[in-house]
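At this stage, I wrote out one protein, both as residues and as discrete backbone shape codes, and that material follows here.
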Amino acid sequence: MFKQIKRLGGDSLLFALMNVGTKLIAFLMLPVYTHYLSPGEMGIMENIDAISSILTFVIIFGTDSALAYFFYSTDNKELKERYVQTVLSFRLYLASLFLIVFLLFAKPLSFLLLGMSGYEKLFYLTGIILVFEAITTVILTYFRFQFKSLKVVIYTVLQLGAVAVISFLLLKYFSYNVDAIFWARFYSLILISIALFSTLSKLLRIKIEKDLLKKLLVYGAPLVPASLAFWVITFSNRIFLTKFESLDSVGIYGIAMKIGMVITLLTSSVQMAWRPYSMSIREKPDADRIYAGIFYIIFIIGMLGITMVAQLSPLILKMMMINPEYIEARNYIAFLSMSSFLSFYYLIISVGLFLKEKTGAISKYVGISAVISVILNIVLIPLFSIWGAVAALIISYLFVNVIIFKKSQEVYYIPVKPGKMIIVYLATLISIGMITFLYNNPQLNAILHVVPWFLLLGSIYLTGIWKAIFDKK
């Protein structure tokens, strides 16, 4: 038992370090990107990445969860490898199909997504990148399932590090524009693929075992709609911003989102630990009270973290980015940080649905939220520009949290007081709004920055939810 616990702890620490390391590298590259690229070029990258992300969901097609299930359902080493080979071949075929589509239709895609031609080669590169990612991600998953966690961490960090270094060199010394990022991704995947070649040669098969693929898809396909719905909520606003505003708006929005997502350094680690932990205590007689306390604690830390992002991010933006074209991004960072927290928090408060095996409700309501998101983007962006996209994102994720929490409570009641959380949530929205207003009006006395903090801390104190942190029971 101790050996298993030690392994779990060691692997968790390695993946946490990898998560922090990769996000830190991406964060430190923002000054480079914003120095050499205009907001319009950043908008081009954001839109192509948005399409790439949805195609990645389709290529995976739920086979990640399915492979995990069937890989550990047998002790037969040969059968394990056959499952991996089947997933690898399936993803490779799908990625190759999308590459052909990009090769044939790059010009109309450029007009559709970017509003202009001349960027066809970025779609060619994106198609090739999807093929290489289809290969490398399966191999790294295979290593992870074999508990070769150190290999996963090394290859992942090296790949992102190579993207950063090559991007910088191409931008600084070879006068590349937005092409640099895509070429850097391509070169880094080539290098990683060469490093993984011995494993690839063992796993790659041209023929797909249909019986194994059928089992994998029956298990994994139902998970695809939820993934696509989350894509709609998270990324579709870039497309609407392009249509109703400009690529410059997309670039500014993208930078604000990347900085706002700094809060995921906290939430992603909790997310990895939450599911096994929440399942491990479900038989405890006071499990409901433990869940309630954790709900409150994570919520309080999240609201404080979002307010801290609001307080510090404009200063960080000013220090990191000398290009004045991006200064507008400071208005949206805290609110996008709020949306990032909400996109994580629903996983915490949906614990009842997982305990009672009612997870189908999650896909249903995320799908409804995606429809709401599209409608809100169409209505709000023409009226309020980037603020419309921000509002659509927050409202959509807020709907997911409220409705999923309600449904989870119906099947497994947890003694929390939603009214208290609503008060603190509203206080947080007002606080980050006040901080944003103060940064946009520097002539006002700087001492006023303490007012939002008094408001937030006062709401936490008066509602009493802070007591969960000190509940020794």
Remarks:
- Confidence is low (pLDDT under 50) at residues 1-11.
- The first helix runs from residue 2 to 28.
- The chain has two domains: 2-208, 225-470.
